[in-house]
UniProtKB/TrEMBL annotation:
Family: Belongs to the class-V pyridoxal-phosphate-dependent aminotransferase family. SerC subfamily.
Described purpose of this protein according to its UniProt entry: Catalyzes the reversible conversion of 3-phosphohydroxypyruvate to phosphoserine and of 3-hydroxy-2-oxo-4-phosphonooxybutanoate to phosphohydroxythreonine.
UniProt superkingdom: Bacteria
Keyword Amino-acid biosynthesis carried by entry: yes
Compartment list: Cytoplasm
Protein name: Phosphoserine aminotransferase
Length: 365
């Protein structure tokens, strides 16, 4: 079966080579006679998978030795509450840059005795541009940012200065697609279903001095318990961790994060150039805040947007419909998305624009 170009914001496209390896291992992993999905999480086979996954991620992101790497469940959404429960002692700061930031803020506000302050927000301009982030004082336990906004199409590609306060980041949609210094952060968390693999696993990278700050937390929501048990306090998401290991191997073979960022910038530049040169399509996002991985664009006419999406689907380009809060189209160009798909989308945009302009001229005459 011919594969489509999947522009989904997540679960997202995975490399064919990785999918073929999964297919091969599905019935018998390394001659064990068991599917990779049937392996005991206490077995030496799975422990090797877990060790390799962590080692590869540490290498790809140059994670310092004083950081723990956790493979957890619950998605990034669970981290919205797990984070403030573990790190929030008195007062925390949040930067509001979109829908997922707002959800994180709402969850943090549920922690008893914790003051949650929004120190910067782009809500007033409909989240089309990153806000200026002020330096904060030591009275805050951490400052939280979302490095990439899948819905609004904005990103912090350069990390704002945060003084001596720990910076925490939700990197769900651009982890491993852009280069960041892990040491700039106290904690990073990311759902897997964008650049890491299938849904079901969440990566948490946390500096050791931020673990165990609070006692008597629910076991499943305690970073210390999870770290002390090697992410195996309960049965971990074994299949998702296995698939993540394969994705890490694929990325390493490709040349690592620096190389994939170069490719991602090329893909994004192609699409942004087509949008900016168009007389029909336009980007609602300010140029200085644009994401490399999630690119919304619109015509300003809902019926034309629907027609374009329909034509794209007929040519094997799916999941281009924009989020309901933004409308229009959204192309998610994660690590595994091929340049050929971007070329095909750009070609359709130009063809569609020509037809629309031709019809308008015909009506005028």
């Amino acid at each position: 079966m011919e594969r489509v170009y999947n522009f989904s914001a997540g679960p997202a496209i995975m490399p064919v080579s990785v999918l073929k390896t999964i297919q091969k291992d599905l019935l018998s992993y390394q001659g064990s006679g068991m599917s990779v999905m049937e392996l005991s999480h206490r077995s030496s086979l799975f422990q090797s998978i877990m060790n390799d996954a962590e080692s590869l991620l540490r290498e790809l992101m140059t994670i310092p030795s004083n950081y723990k790497v956790l493979f957890l469940q619950g998605g990034a959404s669970l981290q919205f509450i797990m984070l403030p429960m573990n790190l929030g002692k008195t007062k925390v700061a949040y930067v509001n840059t979109g829908s997922w930031s707002e959800k994180a803020i709402e969850e943090a506000q549920k922690v008893d005795g914790l003051t949650v302050e929004v120190i910067a927000s782009s809500k007033e301009n409909n989240f089309i541009e990153n806000p200026e982030i002020p330096l904060v004082s030591k009275e805050y336990d951490y400052v939280h940012i979302t490095t990439n906004n899948t819905i609004e199409g904005t990103a912090f590609l350069n990390i704002p200065a945060n003084g001596e306060v720990s910076l925490v980041a939700d990197m769900s949609s651009n982890i491993l697609s852009s280069s960041y210094e892990v040491s700039d952060f106290g904690l990073i968390y990311a759902g897997a279903q964008k650049n890491i693999g299938p849904a079901g696993m969440t990566v948490v990278i946390v500096r050791e001095d931020l673990i165990g700050l609070k006692e008597n937390l629910p076991a499943m929501l305690d970073y210390k318990i999870q770290a002390d048990s090697g992410s195996m306090y309960n049965t971990p998401p074994t299949f998702a961790i296995y698939a993540a290991k394969l994705m890490f191997e694929w990325l390493k073979e490709l040349g690592g994060v620096a190389e994939i960022e170069k490719i991602n910038r090329e893909k994004a530049a192609m699409l942004y150039a087509a949008i900016d040169s168009s007389t029909l399509f336009y980007s609602p996002v300010s140029k200085n805040s644009r994401s490399l991985t999630n690119i919304p664009f619109v015509t300003g006419n809902a019926e034309l947007d629907k027609l374009f999406i329909k034509q794209a689907e007929s040519q094997g380009m799916i999941n281009l419909k924009g989020h309901r809060s933004v409308g229009g189209m959204r192309a998610s160009l994660y690590n595994a998305f091929p340049k050929e798909g971007v070329n095909k989308l750009v070609a359709l945009m130009k063809e569609f624009e020509t037809k629309v302009e031709g019809k308008e001229q015909h009506v005028r005459h």
